[in-house]
Amino acid sequence: MENKSFTLIELLVVISIIGMLASIVLVSVKGARERARDARTVQEVEEIVKAFYLYYDANGKYPVPISTSPRCLGRPGTHRCNCKTKSGEDCAVSKGDDTLNTALSVYISSMPYPASCGMYDSYIYVWTTQEIAWPFKTNAVKCPGAASPVVDDCGRQWCWQSLPK
Question: How many CB atoms lie within 10 A of CB 30?
């Protein structure tokens, strides 16, 4: 009588091959997810820049926030957020700005937010330099401004993009 079953060694070899293939697929999917998140961030920043530009076109200047310190876009005045400066330091003094949100609400229906990472949860507007700061993680994104040399807690760099004049 002939036994037609697999040996334990054969089963272990097949299981280990399937495990290796699954890990390769998961690594490639993770990279695709990060690229997709960065592509969404770039699209959202383009919408924000358009809203600022439309405000500028209608009013002859960019909106003036309550304070000249960096502001969290779309967040209420009590909200605190963070970013990385061009030199790599934290800019934890950022707050939301209800006046700024109201001024832009005519030009953008709802302000988008980047993927949250603790206090790194908002796009940033700096009125004094007329820049928007936003996070990115992959090399697929080309920052049209200055990128921070240091990453935040989630391993993202911050792009400092000037608004058009």
Answer: 10
